[in-house]
Amino acid sequence: MPGATAAAAAAAGRPASLIRAVGLRKTYGEVEAVRGIDLDVRSGEAFGFLGPNGAGKSSTMRMIAAVSPPSGGTLEILGLDPAVDGPRIRARLGVCPQEDTLDTELTVRDNLVVYGRYFGLPRAETRARADELLGFFQLGEKAGAKVDDLSGGMKRRLTMARSLINRPDLLLLDEPTTGLDPQARHTLWDRLFRLKQEGVTLVLTTHYMDEAEQLCDRLVVIDGGRIVAEGSPLELIRRHSTREVTELRFGVGQHEELGERVSHLAERVEVLPDRLLLYTADGEETLARVTQLGLVPAAALVRRSTLEDVFLHLTGRTLVE
């Protein structure tokens, strides 16, 4: 299976930390995109980067991929220095970019075979690996089809299969399910979960909070080039939010005034144009206390706090272009 080599490498003494960064910085002229971050990604885990646009996620991933040199700090990938061992590092990485870069002139199978040859793999071995990956990603029936005949979800699975042809020690995924419908996303999540079970170390960026909660053992929230929070999804929710959230919808233009009236009922109240969010330990009790004040919302919802609540609390709700 695709993760067999990764698991064997771990048993053979692969570094416990596959990515180690201390004070990592990246500047572009006067712009400081990454401002002194520390990272320690361990073998066999799924590690995520969350952050708004321009937060520094892509710049960090490019440094990890050994295609963009750091401007400061120290960075070690797979126990190697990317400044001097870039080719050796890249040979052991799998990179799944946000945009599909498949060769539309080739068949599905040949996209894997040709890419495998770039790593110097023997032709017979490359073909065997290609067939194995087509089976793993449920693309066997499309092996002889052209790329243009594939759905969006199939193209993403093929791109991911291609990134595994060299049996990498570390798989980098940039927004792996962007633009996919829910069914295609869940299919890809299932494949990624299986890869993690087989020992493949995953590092991903995503703007889907449910994706981060599903896949990531640990993650960091980056904002303004700095890490503002780190931990497992559950740890971040416990640390930066409450157990439950009560959502209240009133008439247009009423939420600002009513937010002040209910502010004492919750640990934190967020006033949005279309609703109030009351962060509390017991959402049903909070809702009951709202009605005791004589307030009757047009709609009310009690839900558990999510990673999205944490993300928006830490990075703000203002759209970043």
UniProtKB/TrEMBL annotation:
UniProt key word tRNA-binding: no
Domain of life of the source: Bacteria
PROSITE patterns xrefs: ABC_TRANSPORTER_1 (PS00211), ABC_TRANSPORTER_2 (PS50893)
Gene Ontology biological process terms in this record: response to antibiotic
GO cellular component: plasma membrane
This protein's UniProt keywords: Antibiotic resistance, ATP-binding, Cell membrane, Membrane, Nucleotide-binding, Translocase, Transport
Subcellular location, record wording: Cell membrane
Domain ABC transporter: 19-249
GO MF annotation terms: ATP binding; ATP hydrolysis activity
Keyword Nucleotide-binding applies: yes
Protein name per Swiss-Prot or TrEMBL: ABC transporter ATP-binding protein
